[in-house]
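Example protein
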Amino acid sequence: MVLKRRNFLKFMGAGASAVALSKLTSCSQEPSTSALVDNSLKFPTVKGPMPLPTDGVELVKQSQDYSTYEVIDDLLLPEGFTYDIIAAWGDKVGDSRFGYNNDYLSLVETGENEGLLTINFEYISGGTWMQTYSQVIGKELPFDEVKSAAAATKGAINAFALPEDDPLKAKIKEISQEGLIDQGLGVISIRKMADGKWERTNSPMDRRITGISGLTDNRYLKATGPAAAVFRKQQVQGYTDKLGDRIIGSFQNCAGGTTPWGTVLSAEENFQAQVPEPVYADGSSFSPENLPFFINDFIVDGRANVFGLAGNKYGWMVEVDPANPNDYGTKHTLLGRFRHEAVGCRAVKGKPLAVYSGCDRRGGHVYKFVSKGVVSNPQDKANSSLFAEGTLYAALFTADGKGTWIPLGPQTPVNPVLPSTVEGNLVTLPKRPEGGFVKVQTDQEAVSFKEKFATLGDLYTGNPEEKQGAILIDAHFAANAAGATCTPRPEDTDIAPDGELYIAFTSGTPGGNGGPDKQVFQGPKGETPWEHGWIVRLVEDNDDPTAMSFSWEALALGGEPAAGGAGFSNPDNLEFDQDGNIWMVTDMSTSKHNKAVPSRVDAEGKPLGQTDIQGIFGNNSLWFIPTSGANAGNAYLFGIGPMECETTGPYFSSDQQTLFLAIQHPGERHGTRKGNAMETRKLAMTNNNGEEFMQTRTVPLGSNWPSKKPNEPPKPAVVAIRRQDAQRI
């Protein structure tokens, strides 16, 4: 199929010009019967469940060729490629084990064909983790006893308040400890052998930083920046763990980044699953009792409750030097406390350091930290000291493709986001004097808030350093109060080889905590909400990392090709190859994978919503997207993940011969696949011209990956993808 070039496009907003609209229209696919010929690709594409403009199937044959489809419980790659398992859940790492739900990966090379692989361990998939724990780890935990006790209180137990000699508290502590051990970070040493395979070398560098590091082993994490002053306060409005600026553990570690000087930044994302997120005006935590331990057949959360961990110490960006075996992590508080998913670090000689990050929640913001000091040598590890002083900003996007950075400091004027401007008409603002946050649903409430508080400094208390620290601790809600743009789940912020920033916005659907700006984030024809996501390029004015204004434009939109999308849904982690092309993985909710769509309309004949038909996209997957040339923005399917998993953390070796990838939570919904169980489902699909046809799809129930042996437990694992001819990917 001949494609029209996907130029970089601005989203159509209320102020979009006719020129922008005409460009947007040109993004949609034109019907054609000729086969796609793209000689620039060095690999064939994988056949997915949906006809794509880039798969080479002529329009007239798409309905027939895609009338049946079999989903495979494996990592599917193009012909000529293979993968090797590097490590999986339960493998020994130092004095601990390889954790669960591996996410971001970073290879810091220490010599030719060898290096240190740093891995994030995000969360545990409660049901599958409990089902397979004893089989994989080799010991029993009292799941049934604790679930039985919790049933009387609908699954929730404030274990923090139980007496120390209570047998139930001991059982909860045992489960919570094991769950937190399976989160955090890990460092493993690896090398490439003559046949191209990678193997572990188990060096003294191998170690784990878990969710309870420091609890009994004195391996505390450190903190820099103004929030550390809040941690050290003796008299606070709320709860303190009395550890000062020492921190127990790191958990919910999702995406991350590698600095030019060889350290790794690890993002603590959904920390609110383990500790309370709300804080008081002085930045102190709500009590652990505000988030009890919770367990049922599918969930094991609130695991920090029994240990009395302080909520304000989680939700940060953690820096680790993998080459220093005594480094157990530093939380840099000037990068803000929010649901960190991403980080992009730009170090230019003679300029301040700029660090970009995103808050992965519905209505979350894009942030930039600018250091006070300047970079003298981008490869110098002394650059880590630059995180200790500087300013955090939040982005304000406008529908005309422009934007500015709002400083999050005491002098910043209060100018709240108006609920009428966001999907779902909901904004969360700091609640005063009680602490925490309040949900605002009318513009008048936001205006009244502005009349009551003039600056961010009016919302927080303490001496100047402590007040700044409290703002950083409450960054998301402070950014809402300052008027930063609510965005659609920014799950990655990655710096391209030319220094430009790319952002993966995953999902435009609103939720219980907010939604994106509906004047800015729209579908190809102005649709709102647009579930399937966007990949956006942001360019600082004058290419200056310290600039206070920028321009932005879209590279690719998720969605069906017939609707103007590129063929994927919910873009997540991004990785650049040396030529500046994007390699992207998707993050569709497990509940949507291959979900039957027997009809595109409901019982009343009304079209189903985007989230109701998301099963058409199949499993989470891996895509190749050029950023320049005639095929810029076109999406080529490179890989498809195993059952019920998320593909995460793509990272290239410097010779471009290996693409490391993390496979997270295989079998998350159905657990272990028993007896090769599968199900046949009907899905109403469309060809690239929008003509509907019915597909019969066979779908395995659960997973046996990575062993692929019948009835074997599914395990998160890290793989190394390579060409069988040993050439560049």
